[in-house]
Design a protein that fits this description.
This protein is of the alpha/beta class and 253 residues long. The chain is built from ten helices and 14 strands. The chain has helices at 3-19, 24-31, 35-47, 69-73, 77-90, 103-112, 125-133, 157-163, 189-200, 239-248, and strands at 22-23, 52-54, 57-59, 96-99, 119-122, 139-142, 146-148, 153-155, 168-174, 177-179, 183-186, 202-208, 220-223, 230-232. The strands form four sheets. It has a six-stranded parallel beta sheet, sandwiched between helices. It has a three-stranded antiparallel beta sheet with strand order 1-3-2. The protein has a three-stranded antiparallel beta sheet with strand order 10-11-13. Helix 2 packs across helix 3 (35-47), helix 5 packs across helix 6 and helix 6 packs parallel to helix 7 (125-133).
Length: 253
């Protein structure tokens, strides 16, 4: 897929997310392409759950729900590797960080293992094990609480209370969606609670989000856009979303 096609589809997602139903004819005129090209775009985006294709046009997607952790680990692996490399440029030796549970944060942890002197506080058993296997001077704190086996994580009141005992440089979180109006959202209520608690105790919040999550909404709000310090994605967002990030003071390296 060419960059031009990718940019157009990103802009289509953002238009539909902000303005609601769009017709094929309107989109074709707006982007200077044929109706058949727009139909192919909408078919692709519908298959990925990013819009709902209907007769003559498309609607915003239904609230996003996520697959199993194993399924998410094989989604967009190259994009997640790019995000992980960008995070490595932000996190400095000696930093203290929260990392929540997610396929992107797990891949990011693997990119950070050789950063010396980190203190890592996480509710993810998998992330704790990644750092624990590394032969570097990392301090690892695994939050207690109710064990959720599907994602190998701890959740609930005990985990939330323990988060309040720390103050960190960065909260590194992943979300199910980033929307200009709604902000950051999650598909799991317990994970949304964990992310919000981590953000409250952090000097900076770094959201890791593949481009497929830009313009998407899930059921549980994590925060408005102005609660985010930095968004790391594998490619720049479309113009509408970039404008929303800039208005909210969000850095997009």
């Amino acid at each position: 897929m060419s960059k031009k096609t990718s940019d157009r589809r990103t802009s289509i997602i953002e238009l539909i997310a902000s303005d609601g139903r769009m017709s094929v004819d309107y989109l074709a005129q707006a982007f200077g392409v044929s109706p058949e090209t727009i139909r192919r775009d909408l078919g692709n985006l519908d298959a990925r759950g990013l819009v709902r294709k209907v007769h003559g046009g498309a609607l915003p997607p239904l609230l996003h729900s996520e697959g199993t952790f194993s399924e998410r680990m094989v989604e967009d692996p190259k994009a997640k590797q790019i995000i992980a490399k960008k995070l490595r440029d932000i996190i400095q030796p000696g930093d203290t960080v929260f990392m929540d549970t997610g396929s992107t944060t797990l891949i990011a942890a693997e990119a950070l293992v050789m950063t010396h002197g980190l203190t890592v506080i996480t509710n993810s058993l998998s992330i704790a094990m990644v750092f624990g296997r590394a032969d570097v001077d990392t301090h690892i704190y695994l939050l207690g609480g109710k064990y959720a086996p599907g994602n190998d994580q701890t959740i609930g009141p005990t985990a939330l209370e323990q988060i309040t005992q720390f103050q960190v440089d960065h909260a590194i979180i992943t979300v199910a969606g980033l929307d200009a109006d709604i902000g950051a959202t999650d598909a799991n209520v317990d994970e949304a609670h964990i992310a919000r608690a981590m953000m409250k105790r952090a000097n900076n919040t770094v959201v890791l989000a593949t481009s497929s999550k830009i313009g998407r909404r899930a059921a549980f709000r994590v925060c408005e856009l102005d609660g985010v310090g930095t968004v790391l994605s594998e490619m720049p967002p479309g113009p509408a979303m970039m404008e929303a990030f800039l208005r909210a003071g969000v850095s997009v390296p």
